[in-house]
Design goal:
Elements (H helix, E strand, L loop, with lengths): L4 H24 L2 H10 L1 H33 L7 H5 L11 H4 L4
Keywords: Membrane, Transmembrane, Transmembrane helix
Length: 105
């Protein structure tokens, strides 16, 4: 099963932004004014709300990924020597040396 937490967090954030928008406009003027403003600028507000939801979802996706990696590294046994620890890493991309890059054929 996929982890849907970032999607849920993004949707909650987008809904929260709409609530804040309507709340501030209702507090300053009236609810009918808030609806009138939203009907005039719905396309800008919807783009802003969707973009904020996507940003929040991506941020939480990255944050959950970093947290999971931190938990992984924290749970490794401390008595592993470096060759055994190397099999847990994924640093093959950094193993390219200038000799391999500039090798003559």
């Amino acid at each position: 099963m996929r982890n849907n937490k970032p999607i849920i967090i993004g949707a909650i954030g987008a809904t929260g932004l709409l609530i804040i928008y309507f709340g501030i406009l209702t507090w300053v003027n009236s609810f009918s004014h808030a609806l009138e403003q939203f009907s005039q600028m719905w396309y800008w507000i919807s783009i802003l709300v969707v973009g904020f939801g996507i940003q929040l979802g991506l941020y939480s996706y990255i944050r959950f990924g970093v947290t999971a990696k931190t938990r992984f590294w924290a749970n490794l046994p401390s008595d592993l020597d470096s060759p055994d620890r190397a099999k847990y890493t994924n640093f093959d991309l950094f193993a390219v040396t200038p000799d391999l890059v500039f090798a003559k054929k």
